[in-house]
Amino acid sequence: MTAEHGGAPYLKRMKITSFGAFANKVVGPFTPHLNVVFGENEAGKSTLASFAGGVLFGWEEARGVRNTYKPRNADRAGSLFFAPRPEEGDSLQGENADASAAASASEPGVLASGSVSESENELVLSRVRNADGLQGPVELVDDIDRETFQTMFSLTADELRSLRNTTDMTAKLLTAGSGTGASPAHALAEVQDRLAEYTSKAAGIEHSIARLTAEQDDLRAQMAAAADETERYKAQDKEFHELAPQRAQLLARLDALNASIEELAAQRASLEKLDAQRDQLRRQRDSLREDEAALAAEHRVREQTSDPALVALGAADERALRDRIDALAEEQAKCAHSVDLAKENCSTSTAAYEALLETEDVHQVHEGRRRQRSVQVGLSIALPLVFVAAGVPLFMHGREITSLSFTALGIGLVVFSLMLAAAALVMLFRPDKAAEALEVRKQDAQWVMLQDKKKLEACLSAQEQLAARIRSQLDAVGLSAAQGSLRSARSLLAEAKDARAETGLFQQRQQALASRLSSVEDNLADVERQRARAVERAGLRDGASVEDVDAAIEQRTRQRVGLLETSESLNRRYGELKQELSQAKHAHRFDELKLRYQQVRTRQDESAQDYARLLLAKRMLEAAIAAWESKSQPEVYRQASRLLSLMTDGRWVKVVMTPEGRLQVMDAVKTEREPVHLSLGTCQQLYLALRIALLMTADNVGRSVPILADDILVNFDARRRIGAARALAELSRTRQVILFTCHEEIVESMRSVDPALNVVEL
Question: How many Å apart are CA 387 and CA 344, to the nearest integer?
Fold first, then answer.
């Protein structure tokens, strides 16, 4: 324990009357050096830390969702008991007495609930309501404020992630321990505030030099004016009476201008609305005209692709033409059927004739008579079957399509097959006349073949004549584009019918567009008439735009501004003259001004002297603070570097502050990093080392306030936890340290570096 710290009291125990879940509870005793409050989760460790801060600097107000530890049916209240720090020779005896008191309590390390006896040397700080303030020897905490306590003395894992206002906090702590009655940093801030008051122009600061100078200048001007006011009174009275008619004239002109501007504004709004309507109607008109032109062009294109004569056909003519086409189609179908039948008959007869011719070839000669009978038998069977096979389908097909030709041909083939069968039978039974019969058959087959060929030629000729007749008839009725095709003729008639329908639809759409266009043009003409009337009412030329109205409004506005300025000038002058003439009755005003001027001058001289003294004090304080910082601040960062190296086992060895005011650390291989680039544990170790260094260097600040550390070692590994424990043990040689934890390994780490560790269990 250093000599500077020897006489400062330390926190011996806490008495919680009501705070959070605790009521009428005493916790302690604590030793002046290193203490650990050990308890399970939710045992109340954080509550105790918040309670100590609340007693010293006020209970936290209920804001947001933070826990303020306010009991349901009671006010927060409690006391902190401080005892004089024992001398080195007496420390062991005092600590043994505290340990005996703890052993006699109902719980280990926690005194029994209820009252606690106070010795004659104990100092008690207590608080109930914030409005009542701290009760007891408040000088114990006079050298520390709430912000410094929360930043430097009440440590949590979250607080160790940064150090707010590092430079300001360093200056505050270092200069607070300078040995003066108050911190030079606080004194400098107060001097700067008072200097700002002397240079401020704000109202209510009577000793402000700027305000006094302005007041003196004003009084000087008033005195100069008062010296000549007697000579001016007559001229002012004359001027005062001449201003009345001028003011009335100006007011009349202003009223006229205001009325004109209001009328122009109304007409401008009307013109703007009418212009919008006109533009919309013009767009509608142009759009309708474009639609009308597009519709006409589309109709012209369709007219070019349609035959006007067909389009002009009436309903009766179209029906008659369709009937003629249907009749021609039926006739064409019959003719085609006849041609097909003739072709089939011709093919059949030709095949029969060629078959008969083939019976007399070389093969028949070689076969001889041996196969004559077999051939006769085959022919008697095959030929009738062929004709029956050809005749029956023709007969059935003719019945299906109700064609007499096909039916007759089918019957003929069947009959012919029967005749052939009969002839074959006759030939079979007349083997002596085979050659004659064969010749007769050849002649018959040849006759039939020639007959079928002639019939086919006749059918083809009739088909050609029918096609020519169909084409001539279609050309005669205006269907030449069909080129003799009845199907194309029907398509042309359908297209003509569609064209007539589209023509009717075109006429309807054209009439609708014309009606809408006429309505839009009427509305446009009405809008133009309304606009012309609005322009006329505005007093502008025909065709004036909104911009012209704006220009007219701006011109009249400028005129009104000029008249208003003139009117205000006249009114101001009128009021000044009236006031001055009313004050002309008091002849002692000049004497009063001289007296006030002397008073202000005296006060100004006094303020100047005070300002000079404050400037001198400011320079002296700045020099003193610079000297203290140049001496103590390097020691802070030297100690912080040593402690950080101790905590990190030599990994990070140096802590520096850059000229820009940013904190940096350096590792063993000279790599520099800012705290934001460190891991969570290393960052907490950095800020813990910096706080311990500040507290060790500025050991005269908060001499009686304990360091409350709530589980600040949880993010450290085992090796770095031992280093941090050594740093806390080193701090506890000059300040009281109370560590709250729920981890037994942390308790063992603290005991390994300080065998005299005081453990208070909850």
Answer: 12
SS3 content of the chain, % helix, strand, coil (to 5): 70, 10, 25
The C-alpha atoms of residue 27 and residue 107 are separated, in whole angstroms, by 10
Residue 80 phi, psi dihedral angles, 5° rounding: -120, 130
Give the C-alpha separation, 298 to 291, whole Å: 10
Distance, CA of 69 to CA of 19 (rounded, Å) = 6
Q: Which of 705, 688, 699, 728 is nearest to 635 (CA)?
A: 699
Cα gap 734→729, rounded to integer Å: 9
β pairing state of 22-27 and 110-111: antiparallel
State the Cα–Cα distance between residues 119 and 83, nearest whole angstrom: 9
- Determine how β-strand 758-761 pairs with β-strand 10-19: unpaired
| Domains in the chain: boundaries | 210-304+529-585, 318-358+375-427+436-481
- Cis before 29? omega within 30: yes
Centroid of chain to Cα 755: 61
pLDDT of residue 447 exceeding 50: yes
Rounded to whole angstroms, what are the CA distances from 756 to 370, 429, 750? Answer: 149, 155, 10
pLDDT digits (tens, 9 = 90+) for 137-187: 888 887 787 877 887 788 887 777 766 555 555 555 555 444 444 455 556
389-409 pLDDT, tens per residue? 877 787 788 788 877 887 888
Q: Which amino acid is at 57?
A: F
Q: 14 has which bridge partners?
A: 27, 80
H-type alpha helices, 305-433: 308-311, 315-358, 362-367, 372-400, 404-429
Spacing of C-alpha 636 from chain mean position: 48
Cβ atoms 82, 12 nearer than 8 A: yes
Q: Give the containing element (helix H, strand E) for 759.
A: strand 758-761
489 exposure class (CB count in 10 Å sphere: 0-12, 13-18, 19+): buried
Look-up of token digits 């604590």: 30
| Nearest CA among 443, 438, 410, 442 for reference residue 424 | 438
Quick one: tokens of 288?
């309708």
| pLDDT score, position 428 | 64
Nearest to 642 by CA among 651, 630, 654, 632: 654
Q: At what angle do helices 229-304 and 486-538 cross, to 10 degrees?
A: 170
Tokens of 449: 């073949």
154 burial via Cβ count (<10 Å: 0-12, 13-18, 19+): buried
User: 274: closest CA among 465, 66, 528?
Assistant: 528
**Mind listing the pLDDT tens digit for each residue in 341-359?**
888 888 888 888 777 776 5
Per-residue pLDDT tens digits for 231-251: 666 676 777 777 778 778 888
Q: Say which residues have a Cβ less than 8 Å from residue 752's Cβ, sequence separation at least 6.
A: 722, 725
Please report, as a single letter, which amino acid is at residue 596. Answer: R
Look up residue 165 and give its two tokens: 């206002």
Contact 346, 453 (CB under 8 A): yes
* Residues contacting 123, CB < 8 A, separation 6+: 9, 81, 82, 83, 136, 137, 140
3-state secondary structure at position 17: strand
394-400 contact pairs (CB < 8 A, 24+)? 394/341
Distance of CA 620 to the CA centre of its chain: 56
Written as one letter, the residue type at 19 is F
